[in-house]
Amino acid sequence: MAIDPGSSEMRFLISFLVIGTTMGCHDSLPPQAGSTTAGRSSGPPPTGAPPLGHLRLNELLASNRADRIDDEGQSSDWIELHNAGPQPLRLGGFRLTNDLKTLDKWTLPNHLVPAGGHCLVWMSGLGRVSLAPEALKASATTIPFETTLVPAGANWKYLAGSADEKATDQPSTPTGWTAVDFDDSQFSEGPAGFGYGDDDDATEFPAGTTVVLLRHAFTLTEPLASEAIVLQVDYDDGFVAYLNETRVAAVNAPPDKELGLNSTARGQREAGSPERFDLSKHAGLLRTGKNVLAIAALNTHRGSSDMSLKPALGTIPTVLHANFRLNKSGDTIYLISPDGNIADQVRYPRQVPDQSLGRIASTRSNWGYFLTPSPGQSNSGPSQPQPVTARLSFTPPPGGCEPGTQVHIAPHSSTAVDIRFTHDGSNPTASSPLYRDPVTLDDTTLFRAAAFIDQEQVGQVVSATYLVGRRPDLPVLSISLKPEDFLDVHLQKSGKGRGSERPAFLEIFSPAGKRVVATGLGFRLHGGAGRRGGIETKKSYRLYFRKVYGEGRVEHAIIPEAKVKDFDKLVLRANFGDGRSHGAYIRDQVTRDLQTDMGGLASNGTWYILLINSDDHGVYNVVERMDEEFFISHLGPGQYEVIKTGNTVLSGTRKGWDELRDFISSTDFSNQDNYDELAKRVDIENFTSYVILNLWTLNLDWPHNNWYAARRIPDGKWIFLCWDAEWGLGGGPYRHDVDPYAFMDSGGAYGHGMSRKLFFALLGNPGYCEYYQKEVRRHLAGPLHPDNALRQTRRHRDRIATDIEYEFERRKYGKRRWHEQIAEVETFVRAAGKHLQASTDAYFSHRLSAGTEDRVAMAEDENGHRHVVHRTDDGHLHEFSLHPDGSREPDTSISQLAKSPPATGRPAIYTFGAKGRRVVYRDASGHLHVLSRSTAGSDAGTWRHADLTTEIGVPEAGCDPSVIVIDGVPHIFYADRRAALRELWFDGEWKHHALLAAPRPAGNIAVSRSAGTIHVTYVTAFGAACEQTLSLGELKTDRRSWRPRLIHRLPATGNPIGFSHQGKRRIVFRAPEKWPSHKPFYFAHEEKKRPDYRTYQGPRNTLVQATDVGQRFRRLEPIGSPPQQVAGNPCALHATPDGNHFLAFRDVSGQIQEAVLTNGSWQLTIPTKLTGAPPASGDPVGLLSTQNGSRYYLYPGREGHLHELSFNGSWSHRDLNMTAPLSP
User: Fold this and answer.
1) Rounded to an integer, what distance in angstroms lies between the CA atom of residue 481 and that of residue 672?
2) CATH class for the domain made up of 144-316
3) Which stretch of DSSP H or E encloses residue 238?
4) pLDDT for 672-683, tens place per residue?
5) How far apart are CA 1038 and CA 369, in angstroms?
6) What are the pLDDT digits (tens) for 326-347?
7) Could you give the CA distance from residue 683 to residue 710 in angstroms, rounded to a whole number?
8) N or C: which end of the chain has fewer CB within 10 A?
């Protein structure tokens, strides 16, 4: 017979906090008079001696098995103190001891117990007074505030920095804004949370906002009851908090002296899980009267897709743990008064589990045993003079049996008891059926039985399951728990953490029907999307074995494949995405087994039938939970950091993980030394096989989701583990011929997930690219060969076939549907290797397409002279200058003057103040060259040449360079022939850095800037418009953290351009009829539910504007009414002071059109028609004069001449070839 500790009146973490408040264990009031004590006693009195003074020992439990758990999750024993006086009483100076030679064995803190109140002390031996560890965990079910100082949705005063990069009215950072007496009357007001981009903000800011200053004033009329102050914040990406002007908490924030309305976060964090910060040491900052919590919310950069801040402030009950334990064999406990006298004492004999010894409420000295302990309440229930023992036995023992079997229940007790029982999983009560005669079984039946004396339960509930009738092929897990607890777990989809756990009892039966395990456990819901659904939905669960329920570990080979001796927890997978009526059930398990075959570590699993309260829930995949215990079991003793989806920390801290992210986000791994350093931090072989497996299976609900990573602390290498791969092996909502690299590069593998970032970082190293391709070939010939993949598939198919067919028939799905899914898996694995190899070969053989035939570039110097550089048919670069008065200087062959090689593609030109100008171009071999002309010094007026490729030692260019000058420093961007993006900049000397290795460009790129960000836009090799962004602040360092943002749903061609308007980032690109190859897969199911989601219905081969609206998908709309058919790439001019933006493009008839963005809409004009200018043969280049505000466009005509269109109140045109130059 097995005892079920989970069946008694178990109370959880929240209940001990309720005790903390109802018992009034506080410390806010001043000391009270009247706490009298008697003289010192010469020895312990017998049990029941009256106390001396108002504070007394009231109840103790010296053998706690299932009554309550403490904040550590342990069933610690406890002592209850009671203030029987008419006034509040402070505990300061009182002590507990079990040894009169050590009166100060444990001193109570200076908390206050109200008149008639109680205070619970855990006798755990921990010796601490602190916040509960659970109190600081990020969980929807974490410990609630005892006193709320700033509610989660409170109104705040706020001042936001401008999101518009061109704003001229950026407010200055107010001095003293964190002070209590600061005048915030000019601040706006709104409710928390604050931010943009997630569609869940109560107060929204414009996209691109990087900092918001917030203030909330609150009043204290009296000192707090608890000094355990907690700041709770959910944030994206950083914040710094001040309490009454003192900095008390910060994440990803600059120092105070650098904080202002132009500040940015110094690291990334995704919102979704609130974090709690212990401010207890700052409790002295609070004052009676007005207090102010001030917070600066921070975003990483203006190009960020979202920002969030949701703060709250409050206090949480502290928990008292004495530094010694109670001896269940018997002892004497003394309460020592502040003056050293014995205020109270109790001598107790050997105790029995879960029966407390307490002072009878109607007396001062009589003690008795309570079958139902009552901490926090008066001991008013029935009492017993002696402990009562009782246990029950079943005949025959629980297990498989035939219909008609009779079950006998017998008591073994120290006094006469009744036996009462239930069949539905509920705990028996005094009104449950009374056992009198044997019970005859007709079907599978659960018993929950207990002994009773009158109305009170004696001992614990016993669970026994009898499997009657059909005997499954698989072993059986039978779980019993209160029906209301099961509903609470099953239906509370947001329930997570220890607070969502409910006590239950587990029995495991072999296929022969023999019970091999019987123990208590904690029962929780498990999963993500699979949490949805009602009572009829088959869901996943987690089982936790803890000593508070029964055995701390189960010593049985529950998962034989794991080769682990014992288990402390299990996951029961329902395979939500690969189950129910539409799944094969085995895809995730096969994937994890294949990772093991590839030499990796994976969660082992097996198959069971699950019964809950005797109801058949069908076939379940029972697997190992991958937490620290898992890694200890498989990799050996030690401490491990374990991180999972959402950067959730399962053990250790996130410090090492964040350091790895920062390292791979800002490091150029084409440098072999950097790559070698990365190989010290990450197990490259493990990660490579992990990526190959996920791409082979086409598991496209990854890498942004469904992953685990771990390392041994302090310097172990990170390894990665597959999890929840139900979309793999043909299980996802996409065709089997989807290109996995298109998905990773340009599709739905969105966001800044570590696996994707790490893969891209590694691809930046040419040696790794070779290694990766070799590993693909090796694994496809080995573990991922169809023979092995089919072996694993059929092994699991055969294991569950009989029982899954029974389940499908019982649920009226029809077993044919399951066999069809199995056949689909087999078809998939036969073809997966060839598909991955072909995709790999195509991806790594990709080279940039040739640059455009455009030949012209233009720049303006500070004197208003426009310098035009154009390439001739023989590759020579010529320059002429246009003066503000319209006159033109002679055409000069600057490349011949500088003796530089011939050029190809379009050159780039930039000026640098009064010092001169530079021209950057590439030659036919891909070398980048710079031609420089200074206006001062010994070589003034002379063109000089430098071969940057040779000088710096960077790879040859495969496309035309794009240049931008920021704070006087030129930055040159290009893609090399391997389609790797690179940046060169000159800051006293030439330096270089690689951008993210993917998404890979298809051709030319364009660079632009906003107020706080630099942007590089291009079309990817798979036809998606992409923009990589970098905070301007990072340009001051040699480290770069580029972030990609893709435009899904619509193909792009040519060279997109980007700009910011009214705080929103916009990308303009030409949309062709179709994708260049396969459309990159993305999953838009959730986004399509949004009321503002729209599918693009406009024409193709026209310009499309993608506007950032703070969501994953941008709003797509054609430019112009009606939209025009476009022949080439547009050029953009910066916004004018009135906020207008200008685009010029060549239409299919050769006309140059201009689109003007005014008040959110585009207006089209055709300057070539207005001026009678000839049609164009190439794309225009443009310039908005900083001297006179005029707009200038140059384009090549079909007759070979270079033409200028200009607007200064009206349009004009001239043929520059026909314009006579000035005399030299």
Assistant:
1) 58
2) mainly beta
3) strand 238-243
4) 999 999 999 999
5) 73
6) 999 999 999 999 999 999 999 9
7) 10
8) C
